[in-house]
Amino acid sequence: MNFDKLFHRKGLGSKKWDEVQLHTGVNADDALPMWVADMDFQPPACVIDTARRITEAGDFGYFCRMEAFYASVAWWQETRHGWTIDPRWCLTTFGLGNAIAITLQTFSQPGDAVAFFTPVYLEFQMKTERNGRVARHLPLAKEGGKYVLDWDAYDALMTGAEKILIISSPHNPAGRVWTRDELRAIADFCIKHDLLLISDEIHNDLVHPGHAHIPMAVACPDILDRLIMMNSASKTFNLAGLRTGNVIIPDEALRRRFAHAISALDMQPNLYGVRMTEAAYSPEGAAWVDGLCAYLAGNAKVMADGIARIPGLTFMPMESTYLAWIDFAGTGMTADEFTARVRDDARIGASPGAPFGTGGETSLRFNIGTQRARVVDAVERLQSAFKDLQ
Ligand SMILES: Cc1ncc(COP(=O)(O)O)c(C=O)c1O
């Protein structure tokens, strides 16, 4: 796979490219979209060939063989993450945002609180609030330039109204890969405060060389009775438009409640999502992901090195994902000032940090899941936009 080959998505109805102005305010023909979390890569040939075969056969009727799909999910978890699952534990949703919303509705009541470590994927808060629950921010601390869990602070922030904790593992927006000890501490916190734990592991495959993701169910098998595991092929293989998420619930009582919720909504997966995910979860898909992770680590290095040359900007070291988290606090500028420079001078559509919750206010998130040439371009644009600081 040649990850350097430019993929031109503008005009194809890509939200990232065609709505960059709408969502980030960048108004320029050469806008560089680095906001929403999808990549500028086509998936591996095995996935595209599967879509082509379905299309050519022209059979879009009701379909069967879901057991083959669930077996592929189990195979992927076993071979890539060392997690042995029973395929019968798997349920399918319209992506993981949908899975989180269903979990909130099924396992909590309006007015209950939902906790998460901030800054974090902004939809945790939005889904919580849209569903009439209360967001409880548990701010991360920084140690050695990286986010760490701040256990001295969290107990005092809990009010007793919290019913659910959601984690992003690995962590969006900063790419932390939580260690076994950190996962253990999170599990103990859930036991102590009697919380259901949603472990959102959508970024689990995008771990840079030298780091290893541990599924929560592997790290802490003693909390399966309060654990909802979520993952999918959507970030890994750039299939977000297929709207297909895996919800894996080992505990039978929890699984029954979730299954009832999706059956009450008559949610049934779509043909392309199931078949293309199954094709991705294969040895060919695995080889492609290995190449991708090495490439993303290369992009992270280019971005980190470039940002290091701009005084006042701090790049958080990335252990995973294609989401770079850059703190502008050292510039002494307000968020409006540094955001305007990125938007109007660099013409980069980045994600503002404040919606990621407490601690995100002075940062912007840049999606570097793109061709290296575009990352180099982004670095040059930022260096130019902040040249008075250099
Ligand atoms: C941590 C996390 N969870 C969930 C999602 C959304 O997933 P989906 O597109 O499957 O709804 C994202 C997308 O960026 C994400 O980063």
Key descriptive features of the protein:
seven-stranded mixed sheet, alpha/beta, Aspartate Aminotransferase, domain 1, binds pyridoxal-5'-phosphate, globular, Aspartate Aminotransferase, domain 2, 390 residues, four-stranded antiparallel sheet, 40% helix
Count of discrete alpha- or pi-helical segments spanning 4 or more residues: 14
Report the sheet with the most strands, covering strand number, pairing sense and barrel closure: 7 strands, mixed
CATH superfamily (homologous) name of the largest domain: Type I PLP-dependent aspartate aminotransferase-like (Major domain)
Structural class: alpha/beta
Shape: globular
Number of strands: 15
Instruction: Measure the end-to-end span.
Output: 37 Å
* Strand residue content: 15-25%
Number of domains: 2
Q: What CATH first level of the largest domain would be assigned?
A: Alpha Beta
Strand order of the largest sheet: 2-10-9-8-7-3-4
Mean pLDDT: 97
Order of helices and strands: HHEHHEHEHEEEHEHEHEEHHHEEHEEEH
Question: How much helicity do the residues have?
Answer: 40-55%
Bound molecules: pyridoxal-5'-phosphate
Report what the structure shows.
- The mean pLDDT is 97.
- The longest helix is centred in the last third of the chain and has 26 residues.
- This protein has 14 helices and 15 strands.
- 40% of the residues lie in helices and 16% in strands.
- With 390 residues, it is α/β, with parallel strands linked by helices.
- It has 2 domains: 135 residues, Aspartate Aminotransferase, domain 1 (Alpha-Beta Complex), CATH 3.90.1150; 222 residues, Aspartate Aminotransferase, domain 2 (3-Layer(aba) Sandwich).
- Helix 4 packs parallel to helix 11, helix 5 crosses helix 10 and helix 12 packs parallel to helix 14.
- A 7-stranded mixed sheet has the order 2-10-9-8-7-3-4, sandwiched between helices.
- The two termini are 37 Å apart.
- 47% of the residues are buried.
- It binds pyridoxal-5'-phosphate.
- Pyridoxal-5'-phosphate binds next to helix 5.
